[in-house]
Amino acid sequence: MKSQAVTLFALVFAAVGLAHEHHEGQIPMNYVKYPYQAMYPGDDEVTADSIFSGITTFAKLPWVQCLGKDRDTTFDIAFIGAPFDTGTSYRPGARFGPAGIRAGSRRLTLYGGYNVPLEVNPFLSGLKIVDCGDIPVTPYDNKFAIQQIEGGHKQLLHRPAFSPLGNDALTGKPLVPISVDGKNHPRVITLGGDHTIVLPLLRSIHSAYGPISVIHFDSHLDTWKPSVFGGAPSDQAAINHGTYFYWASQEGLIKNGSSIASILFPYLPSSPSITEYFDPTDYANDDASGFQRIEAREIDTIGTDGIIKKIRETVGDRPVYLSIDIDSIDPAFAPATGTPETGGWSTRELRTILRGLDGLHIVSADIVEVAPAYDTNAELTTMAAADVLFEVISVMAKTPLGKVAN
Asked: Is the model's pTM score more than 0.90?
């Protein structure tokens, strides 16, 4: 027995000595092996904890009744739904887009929400980000619905931002707002809804920023004259999801020459029955509306870097509004949309291009034409829409809406 005790003691002593001998090779407890794993508030907190339960807001953000009892609550970025789809020409159903996108966003914070390529966690960036629910939109009167959308967006846009602009990261000098009214406005991200909603949204944006540069991702131009797209049988029918940019240009909401559309436009048929919708003269209308174009197929020759370069050269350092139609993604990846077109970009390509907008002053944004009824059981389209917006808020979180005063 005594002999066994001596042997056990010797083994323990040897193990302790061995550990001490290699102490210098041990990894310190606070060591970070990879740069993107830098310590942020929230690290080591519980993740993947029942994200499928509870009220479904965008990315499980706090629900604030911004148009109701919380109308005085301030924020830096707000998500708001615009469940409108009575301006669509083909497949309706985008009124359910806001609910679908929120469902597709449930797992955005599953692992904490850190964006590895952009090296930022927008949810832990110090910004106050909330989900304001939906703007109450009537399905019976398009004219009144458009007024409701503009009014609801303005209520959010014209309250003061929660966080001050702070100082410029390079010079250390104080930042001043880039808005034309000199106020520090929050950002509003709208969940559509068909693309008609962008006309009232741009009217709201104009009230704070004046004529705005627009980055438009879409499979269609959406600058058609009302007499061509739909025939304009009435004043209200003239405003739809194919003509809203025409009207925005006519109203002076767009800064001509500094706006750009990335489009699919896969064919220009000569059949008389559809020439009015896809005709080379449509490019002339698009030019007159102030847009320059990138065609989706250009990605095969210039790649995502070339697409990003063209966009940045066009908008420069101006304030910019971002509008994303989910049909710019190929229906192989996002089938649930009102007017699908094959030959579009992959979800990965669009996300890469959006990350390439890092540093731009994106004042607000939208994603539209998500119609969940046409989605797969795996929620491919709504997940793609949510992931696209994750890239958008990551870019927003890194660049305040301010400039150094002259």
From this structure: no
